[in-house]
Design brief:
Number of strands: 10
Number of domains: 2
Oligomer: single chain
Largest sheet: 6 strands, mixed
CATH class of the largest domain: Mainly Alpha
Shape: elongated
CATH architecture of the largest domain: Up-down Bundle
Strand order of the largest sheet: 6-7-8-3-9-10
Radius of gyration: 35 Å
CATH topology of the largest domain: ABC transporter transmembrane region fold
């Protein structure tokens, strides 16, 4: 039976609920710790009202030893509850870190998040709040009424005074919550946007430096930073005002409590010991509330982080880890596929349909901006906004487990992205390096001899994003990575864009080898040389497949549809129009 919507928990809430045993232990330890907080009050009463009256040193020693023992128990309970929360925070992080990584990666892949690292910041924010002073304040706050009740036993007027100050502090806490949450969230969002903007632009530092664009970038960044500083100053100023009022109320309470107690002692309604004890109790009663006021900003950040992370995990649920399938053969089918992008009124791909059997080499031709690169992303299942069916071996590609499917797919994007590490690690897709497979892939890509000429061969570090390599070297290493492990479906987007004649010849040999092994290969290219190794040609124009079929038939159709050459003059130059 399904639970009603009201009782359904989000994934993050359910994970926190799984730690209810730890929170119960912390609650019990907090109960013990706060109960023992009454020990100083009782000790003062005994010293002022019994020891000083009886002048008994033995009574003083006995009371002091008992009080010291209670203080030791209180310290142990404080230490234990901190230890329980810290360990729970570590387990919480371990349980969610991989899940958050996958969800934030999916979010970035679907162009739904400009800063996937923010998800990890949210996870850290939640963990730090759950293991910091804020959570202790929540556990200690219920004891404020108990301390106030004990103060009433000492004297009703002192109890009323502590109740009034507690209500004032609670009202201030509520006011601080209402007034500081929105400004704090706005400041945090502005800070995130400012950092993301700068980091994204500094990836092109060479372009900025060479063409003198740093000054223009700085002006744009200064505007974002100034907006963040204004919001942060406003939020901090309000939080500091609330904290200042809280301190004023706390200090006023301490002084007025002593004054009221002294007045009652003068009137004979209260003993000096009870006066001191009441002052301590009132301070203990208001301490959790005062601590809540001081942690409102942290609580606001925690709540915002919790909502964002809960939403992220709900939008990108974990795929069934038990779903296991045999590796695909490479047969791919598209049925009525439309691919769109945010900010575009018209779709990029329009009603694209085709079926390609396994072991076919397909060359995809078309002018720039016709949708070829989008088609490549659609086929490997990484384009976010797709309508229609993209089937791999007859099954929707979105339903495959990407970790299981990845080794069976090879993809070379138009803009090759390598990762910091060695050449071997990049070819091996950042996994465990299988030397035999790495060398086989690099030989197929025509890179083996070139790699051996590097200072450390395959162990040569390529720097961040491969910035120590030329464009052609990056492309050929990307090609080796795409064919590493001999995947069944290989999609190469402009694989010869940065290659010289030798590199292009190596590419054609690679495609022929893959074809001989029965691999499905898509070649997206402008160069006619790559067409020679294809079995089938597709021509895309304005997001639609205008021609599709066997290579020779499509080439003939292209020749027939080509415009006649302009007439030439007797000297061989075109006639003027």
């Amino acid at each position: 039976m399904n639970k009603p919507e009201f009782f359904k928990r989000g994934e993050l809430t359910a994970t926190l609920w799984a730690f209810r045993r730890e929170f119960l232990i912390v609650g019990i330890l907090s109960f013990l710790s706060n109960l023992l907080m009454l020990a100083p009050t009782i000790y003062m009463l005994q010293v002022f009202d019994r020891v000083l009256v009886s002048q008994s040193e033995l009574t003083l020693v006995a009371v002091s030893l008992v009080t010291l023992f209670l203080f030791g128990v209180m310290a142990c309970s404080e230490w234990l509850r901190s230890r329980v929360l810290v360990r729970a925070g570590m387990r919480f992080d371990e349980q969610l870190s991989t899940r958050v990584f996958n969800a934030s990666f999916d979010s970035y892949l679907n162009q739904a998040s400009a800063s996937p690292s923010r998800a990890f910041g949210d996870l850290i924010q939640i963990r730090q709040f759950l293991t910091g002073n804020g959570i202790f304040a929540l556990f200690d706050a219920p004891w404020a009424p108990i301390y106030i009740a004990v103060t009433f036993f000492l004297h009703p007027w002192l109890g009323m005074l502590s109740l009034v100050f507690a209500l004032i502090q609670a009202a201030l806490a509520w006011f601080g919550h209402q007034q500081t949450v929105a400004p704090s969230e706005a400041a945090n969002l502005a800070n995130s946007e400012t950092n993301s903007y700068l980091q994204s632009k500094l990836r092109n530092a060479e372009v900025l430096e060479s063409m003198g664009m740093i000054g223009n970038l700085q002006k744009r960044w200064n505007k974002l930073y100034a907006a963040y500083m204004d919001k942060n100053t406003s939020a901090k100023g309000l939080a500091h005002r609330v904290t200042a009022w809280s301190k004023f109320i706390r200090y006023s309470q301490q002084s007025l409590a002593l004054g009221a107690g002294a007045l009652l002692v003068i009137d004979g309604q209260l003993s000096p010991g009870a006066m001191i004890a009441a002052n301590v109790l009132m301070g203990r009663a208001l301490a959790p509330i005062d601590q809540l006021v001081g942690t409102w900003q942290g609580f606001a950040a925690f709540r915002s982080a919790f909502k964002r992370l809960e939403k992220l995990l709900a939008q990108y649920p974990d795929r069934d880890p038990a779903l296991k399938r045999l590796g695909p053969t490479g047969e791919i089918t598209l049925q009525g596929v439309f691919a769109s992008a945010a900010g575009r009124a018209r779709p990029i791909l329009k009603n694209v349909s085709f079926a390609v059997p396994a072991g076919t080499v397909v060359a995809v031709l078309g002018p720039s901006g016709s949708g070829k690169s989008t088609l490549a992303r659609v086929m490997v299942g990484i384009w976010p906004d797709v309508n229609g069916e993209v089937l791999l071996d007859g099954l929707p590609i979105a339903t495959w487990n990407r970790m299981d499917l990845g080794p069976h797919l090879g993809y070379l994007p138009q803009d090759v992205e390598l990762f910091e590490g060695t050449i071997a690690e990049n070819i091996a897709r950042l996994g465990e390096v299988d030397a035999e497979k790495v060398i086989q892939a690099s030989r197929s890509a025509g890179m083996h001899e070139m790699i051996l000429r590097f200072p450390k061969g395959y162990d040569t570090s390529i720097g961040e994003a491969g910035n120590l390599l030329s464009g052609g070297q990056r492309q050929r290493i990307g090609l080796a990575r795409a064919i590493y492990g001999e995947p069944e479906l290989i999609v190469l987007d402009e694989p010869n864009a940065n290659l010289d004649d030798a590199g292009e010849a190596a590419l054609l040999r690679t495609v022929q080898e893959l074809k001989a092994k029965g691999k499905t290969v898509f070649l997206i290219t402008h160069r006619p040389g790559a067409v020679a190794v294809a079995d089938r040609l597709m021509v895309i124009k304005d997001g639609e497949i205008s021609l599709d079929g066997p290579k020779d038939a499509v080439l003939n159709a292209l020749r027939l549809s080509a415009p006649p050459p302009a007439p030439s003059s007797p000297l061989g130059s075109p006639q003027p129009a």
